[in-house]
Amino acid sequence: MKPIGKILWRDLWHLRGQLTAAALVVACGVMAQVCMHSAYISLKATQEKYYDRYRFAAVFASLKRAPESLAGVIGALPGVAQVRTRVIVDATLDIPGLAEPASGRLVSIPERQVPMINDIYLRRGRYIEASQPDGVLISEVFAQANKLDVGDKLGAILNGRRRELTVVGIALSPEYIYEVGPGMLFPDNRRFGVLWMGRESLATAFNMQGAFNDVSLTLTPHSFNKGAEEVEVIAGLDRLLSAYGGLGAYDRKDQLSNRFLSDELAEIRVSATYIPAIFLTVAVFLIYIVLSRLVVMQRTQIGLLKAFGYSSASVALHYLKFSLVTVLSGLLPGLLLGLYLGQLVTNLYQEYFHFPLLELVVSPEVILGAALVNLTGACAGATAAAKRVAAITPAEAMRPEAPTNFRAGVFERSCVAVWLPTSARMILRNLARKPWKALLTVLGIGIAVGLMMVTRFMLDAVDHMMTVQFDLVQRDDVTILFHEPRAASAIFGIRQLPGVSRAEPFRAVPVRLRHEHRSKQIALTGLANDSELHQIIDSQLRVTKVPAEGLMLTRKLGEILGVTTGDNLTLEVLEGSRQIRQVAVAGLSDELIGIGAYMDAGALAQLLGEDNLISGARLRVDPAYAETLFSRLKRIPAVSGVAIRSAMLGSVKQIIDRAFLQVSLVEMLFAAVIVGGMVYNSVRISLSERGNELASLRVLGFTQREIMVMLMGEQALLTLLAIPVGMVMGYGMSAALVPIFDREMFRIPLVFGVKSFTYPVIATLVAAMLSALLVARRLRHLDLIAVLKTRE
């Protein structure tokens, strides 16, 4: 081995603590990059393969009722490849062992298994048979949540009649990868499920023989790739279905399950970009600091190497190798742990997105990309050191470095310095004379504090979002939906149900809102002016009454349509006589979950020309009578669905605990590694640079404790200064994330709880203290004689 190679290994061993800290930061960055990118690629690849193999539709439409003969007319539309008509109904289910009523979406399938649009994957059991009309397939996640298996039975209210259904198979469908019920944003797999039933059996139960109320299309490859032609297909389908109570066709991107999955993929992609970038920045900074200080301390060694014939390039390459070894030390464990975490994240997503098989896709591009990015970063960190090496001449390097010409600064000349102890004056003087080093250390620790703050912010924001939605907006205990709009007098019967202390009716009407070239299909909700169980709030969380005239839109819906208060909209009713009206926007509300349009119930009835029909009711229920009420609701034929507030909250809490908390803990651990790496490197470099100074003070009579205070006090001060800086950076990073999570389904608000500030502070201080203890051990074993030796 060449002498310069031996020097490299000697330096690596001597600085093993600092290099380990930098390598850990590299490993965390690589881990995050490989984990998130692998999870993204796995989900994306599985989604595309599943959609293609099981023929996921490109266009969807629901309607009141149309004859089966219309399917041929739909198939003749330009750009349409295949058509599948279905009967789809919602029903109340009675699940064994479940006190509350469950809701089921029954989807018709042919009695004989054939390839079809939105095909099903049979996990176990068998396909339905015409000889067993009560046989059904049920979704896998619903079966797991209720411990149902092949051969089990469940009750269902089908068109006012109770029937016993037998589970003959467990299935999945690309249409329900994310399985939520009507009006729900979070899954409640115990109380909502999808059931597939024979077409003839389901049609007979609901008097739909020879008819359909739902249609799905696939498009020719040419039209599917051209958005304009897809719009034409949707417009043509709407024209055909308008006479049959069509509720408005929509494309794949607006299909509920696909929209949730697409939004999640977009969020993963963002996380896979910004988190590794933060770690790479810190790693490059650490390498730069270590090598810069190493070059200063090894001036004489560099001069000797050059004097013995080594070129500037050879010596610079020596320090580049030093940097590359550091990165490679973190690269391999980072890759392995990244793949392991990627598998865990993929398994976690399998609990919420239901595929026949979701496996981690190990992409060579991801691994090579992570390696290339980090090795490039290592070269960038070593560039400054290489330039300094090239600038050093042998003759200059062989002489001791000229003492720095210090002068009394503002601090020394101020009266404050007189009142401070010697150790404090020395700490402040050293910081004032090396401001750039102090600034970079503060920024490095600040980044870690900010990252931990962002991690906690996400949890606090979700908590706030749930509090606003379920304490201020949705204040009912139970919401019931009817199969068909009913007379307003039906509310009196609802109020007589056991345990109901208050019942508020509402009307939900499917409409299409248009403004200029923009449009949106949505359920327009009619509320009473004195509504207490569903309230509209503004940006200050103040309750706002439904205007007597005009529409109240959620602010996000206003942004989608490009309208604000005072603008006029075209409102097209998608049921009944399908009136088209010009309606003014009377105000904007600030709900954080979903989008909505509201109108005074009386004004809506007048607009529709109907006699105050209701679509459902919101109930406040005495908990002591809850089970009795649920038992009654299971037997009411008119009820198509029941939503229970406590069940929804429990489902959301479970999702947050199992998904958000696990990810947040990992990210906080990553951030603690950054803090530890920054503090440890900073203290070790200070110890190396000030070894002579500290040893001299020990010889002059300073105790080991006083020396420790001087060294650690400087780092403690920098850490304390970094905390507020980090909080400002965390606020900025959180604010940058808010637009990314400003989606139609939910909006993350920019709010911080107390824990958003306390957790980062505590974690930073603990990491700093642990790092300081490691360096304190070296300080206690400081060799005074060896340190004080000089060449003069």
Characterization of the model:
By secondary structure, the chain is α+β, with helices and mostly antiparallel strands. Among the domains are: 54-259, no CATH class; 416-474 and 647-792, no CATH class; 500-621, no CATH class. The chain has 25 helices and 22 strands. The longest helix has 45 residues, at 645-689.
Notable characteristics:
792 residues, alpha+beta, 6-stranded mixed β-barrel, 25 helices
Secondary-structure blueprint of this entry?
Blueprint: H1 3-14, H2 16-53, E1 59-67, H3 70-75, E2 80-86, E3 88-94, E4 102-109, E5 121-125, E6 135-139, H4 140-145, E7 153-158, E8 161-172, E9 192-198, H5 199-205, E10 211-219, H6 221-224, H7 227-241, E11 250-251, H8 256-297, H9 299-307, H10 312-350, H11 364-391, H12 394-398, H13 410-413, H14 416-419, H15 422-433, H16 435-473, E12 478-486, H17 490-495, E13 500-515, E14 518-527, E15 536-537, E16 543-544, E17 551-554, H18 555-561, E18 568-573, E19 580-589, E20 597-600, H19 601-608, E21 614-621, H20 626-633, E22 639-644, H21 645-689, H22 691-699, H23 704-737, H24 754-780, H25 784-788
Bin the helical content.
40-55%
Cα distance, first to last residue? Answer: 32 Å
The major β-sheet equals: 6 strands, mixed, barrel
Shape: elongated
Mean pLDDT: 83
What Rg do the Cα atoms give?
34 Å
**Proportion of β residues?**
15-25%
Unreliable spans: none
Widest sheet, order of strands? 3-4-9-6-8-7
| Helix count, DSSP H or I runs of 4 or more residues | 25
DSSP strand count: 22
**Structural class computed from helices and strand pairing:** alpha+beta
